[in-house]
Amino acid sequence: MRNLTIARADITTALAAHALTESLRQAKASGESAVRSRVASEALYDARLTDPLRARDKATLVDPALAAAILQDAVEIPPSTTSQPALPSQLGPFNTGYIAFDNGVPVGGSMSLTLYQDGGYAFSGSFHDSGFPSYKLEADWVIVSQSGKAFTFSHSGETYGTVDSGSRDFTFSDVGTNDEIKNAWSDLCAAYTWRWTAYCNWDVQAAIDDLINALKVAGTVIAAVIAVVALF
User: Fold this and answer.
1) How remote is the C-alpha of 88 from its chain's centroid?
2) What digits encode the pLDDT tens for the residues 161-191?
3) Please, which residues bridge with residue 145 across strands?
4) pTM for the full model?
5) CA distance 113 to 123
């Protein structure tokens, strides 16, 4: 019986050590999209039918290939003084789809971001821990306007595994307004690039820097960084 008690103690110690090792494991997942906004596409389509030369000039800013195609048709379509379409009241929601972390970390989830013409925003996410240890999480999203204004959104929390008391789920919803978004609305509608990243057990500032640097490496011009939802 004494040997059995020792064996159980050894097993408990081993499990605790394993949980500690797993809980210190770093992991991340990321995704990116560089697109011409929906309103830009609609505006160019409408302008192409009524004023191809104006459409060409607008298209050059977001898609040179489209500009060339519009110019090719320009002589066939008479110009018009038709007014420009109104800007949309929102961009998004943009969704990550299911997020699975690298390094075998047993946490998964998703995030979403929506921006509004009046400066409003909605940044949300939900993650679930299906493993033995607990994990500290950080969710980050940045969307960059045509001129290079980078709007960042960040939220951190924790999921609790089998060894700890607490919820296995980390859910957040950040809703608010920011005048910088409102003032840059036409710039955002012209074209944007966004990138999201989710981290387990990562240094907060390093995570933000990693996100911005990844966009720069991909060729995105960053002229200014505006922290809409910050951790500090």
Assistant:
1) 20
2) 887 888 999 999 999 999 999 999 999 998 8
3) 192
4) 0.69
5) 5
